[in-house]
Amino acid sequence: MTPRQQLDQFLLDHSDIEIFEVILHDLNGNHRGKWLPTEQIKKLFDGGYKMAQTACSLDSWGRDIEALVAETGDTDGVCTPHADTLCRVPWADRPTAQVIVSMGSFNGDKPYLGDCRVVLDTVLQRYKALGLTPVVASEMEFHLFELDPDQFGAPQHSQRAFDGSPAIGGHTYGIDAMRDTAPLMDAIAQAAEQQQLPVDTLITEFGPSQFEINLYHQDCALRACDQGSMLKRAIRSVARSQDKVASFMAKPFAEQVGNGMHVHFSLLDNQGNNLFDNGTEQGSELLNQAVAGCLATMADSMAIFAPNINSFRRMVPGCYAPLTPNWGYENRTTAIRIPGGDGRARRIEHRVAGADANIYLTVASMLAGALYGIENKLVAPAPIQGDAGNIEPELPHFWNDALAAFDHSTFIGDYLGAELQRNYSLCKRMEKHEFDIRVTALEYDAYL
Fold first, then answer.
1. Tens digit of pLDDT for each residue in 392-427?
2. Taking a C-beta distance cutoff of 8 angstroms, is the pair 327, 418 a contact?
3. Residues paired with residue 244 on neighbouring β-strands, in sequence order
4. What's the rounded Cα separation, in Å, for the pair 378 and 370?
5. How far apart are alpha carbons 188 and 234 in whole angstroms?
6. Which among 112, 179, 181, 366 is placed 20 to 30 Å from 303, CA to CA?
7. Going by CATH, does the domain composed of 3-112 fall within 3.10.180.10?
């Protein structure tokens, strides 16, 4: 069916819908857009719906980048809807549906290369030209906090010890701990099912009030990222409806572990064969090349994997966040892990990004890195045996260092595009400036 026919069928199946939430992703992965009454939704699918292109580059507080506004005159672009993302919004008070859009040019005749979803699509087109299809799945960690912060504005744990203090640990894989939050977790699972989000597993994680949720792999990376982004939205929304706060912040507490986002991917040929599998435990030469590319481009991509000042609080020893570009087989202490098991499922697990990262740009950077290794026939160093946590850090672990590597990277410009590179840098440096000029409570405590 055409997108318009998909819309007509959706409206027929959901005749009570009153409002459509039109969702555009900005460079932080935040959801921007508008609410449209049902009688106007056909305008979107007929190509008559516009938004300012700068909406793709808003900072974390929703502010425009003044240089882009001045340069472009804050021009509009035509938004393209993706009919496969049409679904109900089960937590809304009124009958509501949602749909994801991508930004285009003013005339709608070409995609806007500053849109993170478009950037991922351009990487996928390069794979398609080689007869390759990435298969992608994501795992995301998050915290579940009480609705009200404490007297200092810090979040309060939902898991508590007997005396009311924060729990010592999160009871990793704890069945009883899951049962304690069963009403909320059941509501999340139900919302995911209603939105056709293929949740695989939901577990308690290492830290108190911390959980992990996994999605089934998809043979369309765009679909996998749409599902990952919409699952984060669903988790936050359902939690809020039950007076809780679900947070994907990378490092909510200095003394506890942070939230990561692990991405698994493999490559299929046109016959559906996994090209990372050659019948051995080591995997194919193509797998080695992809690993080598991911390692070679990891430092250049750190500004995407760790997109804000809090992200780098997670990038410290002892927090299960890789600090060096290395890899290993069945080794969770390395940046790149090759899981064991059935060779037909041979894949790369990229373990660097935080749960706060933009999933579209994260996957685009990872796949671009793998492609860089394949196209240049790179050879990976020897895999790490044992604990990689004691190896000297090599990746940028300060925000400014990551931005500098990103700014000067020919890889980023060549594979993700000059427009994305410039816009992302402007956005992040504007955010960084806000933190640079603020005086913190710790400074008052030390120097007042």
1. 889 998 999 999 999 999 999 999 999 999 999 999
2. no
3. 146
4. 10
5. 7
6. 112
7. no
